[in-house]
Structures are given as structure tokens and as C-alpha cells.
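Explain this one:

_____
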Amino acid sequence: MDVEKITEIIKLLRVSINNYRIYPPASQHIAGILNHLYSTLTEYLESNNSLTIGGIQHKMLINGQEVKSLTDSFVLSVLSSREINGVIFKKGMELNELSIFLEYLSTRKEKAKEDVKIIDFLKSEGVKNITVNQLKYVVLKGNEEIVQKASSQVSHLKTDPAEFMTSLREIYDTIDEIKDAGTKKDMIKVLSEKIASLKPEEIRYFFDRPLPSKIEESGLRETVISSLPQEKIREIFNDILVWYEDIKKSSSSEFDAVEHLADLRSFFGKILTSPAAKNIPFRFYEELLRVGVLEATPAWVRKEESTLIFQVDKLLEKDSSELLDPSVRDSLPGMVEKLCQSELTEMAEKLTNKMVENLKHPSLKVKSDTMKVLVQISEVFEKFKKEGMFKSLEKYFLEAVEKETDADIYRRVIDLLGRHAFRLILENRYDESVMILSLLKQHVSPDVEPDKERREIINETLVKLAGEFSGVFVSDMKSNDERRQLQAMKIIIMLGDSASDILIQIIKETEDYRIRKNSARTLKNIGEKAVRRFVESLDLTISTSTLKRAVDVFDEFSEYDLMDKVSLLLEYPDSQIKRALLKYICVIAMRSFSEGEGEKASESKKLLISKLNDKDVVIDVVRILGELKSNESVDELIRLSKIQNPNLQEEICIALGKIGERKGMPVLIKFARYKKSIFSIMSKKAVPAGVRMRAIDALKKFSKYGDGSDT
């Protein structure tokens, strides 16, 4: 099993679902990650007929086999929420099919149409190369407990020879109780994938032993053969070579050896009927032929490999400069691809190293032609996940960032390094990614890279990368893993303006106030353009929780004039949002006054006065105007004092006392003189004791100002 490739697929699947939930379908964030996932899945499916990702009892199964290191609770929860036990990606899958599937999968269940199940949906959309096992949906109609029992039995299939057949029979007895024919067929498929994931010797035991008639008649053997992935067949082939040698050494007689070898060849013949066996490289069959397990090469086996090896051997004998002959040079990437397909890695590496020797040539033309071929070869290594071989060429591409003169080759080198940096992030190799990104970032500066075209090429790549990084970094920042958070922020800071959208998303989505504040500071350090981008993204249509998280960090942008946006957002219906905005206005007004920016402070007060008519926050506004000692608000406060609201009247008294404007004294005197009595208690003019006390306290302050000595 190609664990590394499947790990990347699962990570990309997680990021894709997140992006589909966050961004509109036409967003670049969607297109970038969709293309990356499609490319990675297609590469995997080139050498495998299908990829099955599913789960049983909170365990992730890959092609029916549990791989603990690959378990992704988020992906499992999404599949479970849509009642999916497994999704199968098939060879021939098209980009549009993947997009349709992800769009459905990422729609939260509560927003989805309950009467449209994914099996019917995919069929109606013409999606043929992505199928799902939706057992849970079927069994809710009747056999839920039976199917769950069968699933559990399959998950715990006993592989010990003494217990295997009994365990298999018990599973079939349970499956027989399932009434729905489709569900029963799906359950047998799950069982076959489980058997196909067993160790080679356990699979051999299954094929060598007679099965109970009802199991034999169900076609389980044939289904297991079809379910065998290419990696498992390679394992079996390698073990067959070992078993063959063991039989020859341990047999008591030639007759005994012949009998055991016949059984081994019979098992081998069954494995050869698997569709995946047709994609096994020739060298595996060549070895089986050499030792005698295989008497003749199967008709479908490609025989061109021996010719290819001969051609490569001849090239390795030549001088490295001869590899630059156009007829040879143009064929090298194709040769390397065939070598990788056949797993002749050592030969591919030797041929590549031979080509690398030409980089020492003094001619710029020779170096440029060599670099062009090496980029093509590296793309092959990238495709076949030959990380070590790609790594051996990485230093030459890093040098090319400074030295390459051909614009087209330069673009391909930068694009290659960008993809590599992203891949490293997905593999949690942040330090290596930082090394590449820091070099690219340096060359965006005119002081380092005077060539404008080259700077633009790098900048385009960084912007594209930022879009692809978005889902990963937002996920990192929302996690509780401090190491991931620090690594993500380090790269975000390095990317600068290219990463402003990531920071905006983090501010909007992250609950952790500390992280939001740090993100806001980073956004401010990037510059005014980034801050304006953030502010412009806020409007009256976004959710209350999102806007609350955004407004919480407004104080980080106090040097920028945000009053037009604040004025708009004050129309938001939620009172908590309004209070947070009022608090921000108060801070700005106080800071402006202390820094001698009278005009700015005056604008803030005007905005506050305009909100005195808002019943949700009028008391808060009065309180703030008092703190600001706003003489401009006294007339409005006098008008509001006539409203029969004791809480409001108390705040007006406090505010008028702090402001100290004589114009407000009559209101305070009126409130102070109206005592409750037997005659006034039923009168509308009666003033609550709390309001009267606040008025008296305020009038005392006028005495201190020298304005209330006669009251």
C-alpha cells in the first residue's frame, strides 16, 4: 500500500471539504485544492483500479484494510453524517465527477435535502466513477442490527487457521439473515476487501482450503480476486519466491516437492486472474520465470522492459554531453517514466545523474537545455512519489532561482518548487518548506531580483500557494496544537501580502482570542491594503459569531479610519455587536483627543450621538458620551430625559454630571426636587429615588466646577 500517497489524498480530501464549506463554488480556493486532489487521485489510480476509503466503528479502512496512521476523524465524521460507509474512486474518474461529489459531501446535513440520498444524487448527476457504500441508509429500513453485527464480525475476522473457517461461516450465517439483496451484496464486498487486505500467507490459506458450499456459490473467491490491490499482489509475488525456495529445501522427496509446488502454482494461477495483476511490472514476472515458479510469461505482460534496460545501459556508457543530442534529450523524460513504472529506480537515478553532469558545462545554452530536461524528469519523480530522487535534484532548482536566464524554464522551476513546498506542508515538514519559501520570498524584492518578469513569476506562484495553503493553515490555527499554530503563522508571516486572505479567514473563524489578535497584528504589519481588504470583507450579511470575532480585533487597526464601516455595521440587528462597536468608537475618540486629533474625536462623538435613537444600545451610548464629556450631546440627552425609563434617566444624570455643561442643570434640578410623597406617588411627575439620587450627585459636581453653588 502506498501509504504516503494515500496520506496526501486524505489530507487533501479534508482540506477540500473545508474549502467547499467556506468558499463559493467559483472561488480560486476551491479550484486550486480540487485540481490538486484530482491530480493526486489520478496518479494513484493510474497504477490501481480503485481506491476505497471508508470506516467501521470509528476506524478508517483503506481498500478494506485498517491503517491506524491514516485515520482522520474529520473525514470519518463527514462520511458518517451522510450515512456513507465507504467511498470508491475508480480509474477513469473525471474532474467534474469529483467536484460534484465534494459539493454534495461538504453540504452540512442540516442544510441538505433529506429526501435526496447520495446514491441517487450521484446517479442523477451522471457520476459513474465515484460510488458509495451506504449500508446504514439501507438497514434503517429493517436490518440495522443484523448489518451492524455482520460489519463487526468482518472487522474482527479471525485469521488463525484453526478459527478462520468457523469465523467465515459465522459471518455468512449473519449475512444470510439480511433480506435486502443489495445490502447483502455490499456486505459480501466488504468481506472480500477484508480478506484481500490480509497477509499473503492468510490469503493463500483462504484459497487453498475448500469452502462451505453456500460460501463457494456466493462467488466470494472471485470477489476477493477482484479486490486485490496491486500492492498486495506484489507482496504475494515476493512471498511466493520465498515459499518456492522453502518447498525445495524442506521437501522430504522429489515427489513431495512436486506436489507442494503444484499447489503453489495453482494459488499463483488464481492470483494472476486478478485485474490488478495486469499492471505489475515485468521484472516481477521475470524473477518468477527465472526461479521456475512461472513456466511462461502471461500474454499481457509487457516485454519492452528488457529493450528499455538495454537502451539505458547504452546511454550510460556514453559521455554526458551526448545526452543533449535532441533525439536523445527529448526521449529522456519518457525513459525515466517507464523506468519508474517498472520500479527500476536505480537505473532512473543513474540516468538522471548522468544528465546532471552537464550542469558543470561553461555554456549557458547547455546548462539551460539540461535544466529543462531535469525539470521534466523531476515532474516524473513527483508523479511517482520518488521523494529521494526528487530531493537529489532540489539543490539544482534552488540554485536556478538565482541563475536561470530562460523565462519559460524559470517559470517551470518556480512552479515545481512551489508544488514541492505545498507537498512538504501536507507532510508536516514545515522547516523544509520554509527554506524553499524564504528563498522565493527574497526574490520578490527588487533589491535581490532586479528582473521584473522573474519577480512577477515568483509572486504569482506565492499568491497561488497562499490559496492552496489556506485550508491547511486555518485548520492548523484552529487546532489546539501549539507547534502547528507556530509553524503555520511563521509561513503566513513570510508570505506577507499573499497570505492576507488566510489571516482574514483565521480572524473570522478562530475562537481563540489570542490567535485572532496575533493574526490582526500580522495583518496590520503587512500594510494598509491588507487591513482594508479585511474591513471590506465585513458586511451585514455575515453571521453574528463571525462578525463578533472580527469586531473584537478592531482596536488593532486604530490608526486607520474605519468609521464608515463601523457606521454601517452599527445597523446590524444584534445588540452585542453594536456594544462591541460602541466600545471601539469610545477607544478611538479618547485616543484621538489625547493625541490632539480633535476632528477625528468629533466625528466619533457625532456617530455616537446618532445612535441615541437606537433602543437596543441607547443606555450604552449615554454612558460612553458621559465618559467622553461630550458637550455636543447635551441637547439630545435633555430630550431623552423626558422618556419614562428610570435606568436611562439615571445614566443621563451621571453623564450630565461628568460633562459639566450648565445647559443640563435644569433637568438635574427637576429630577432632584421631585420627592415621592403621599400626594405625588400616583403622579406621572414622580421621580424614582434612584434617579433623584443620581441627579443630586451630578449637581454636587457642578458645585465643584463653580457652576452649582446656588443649587
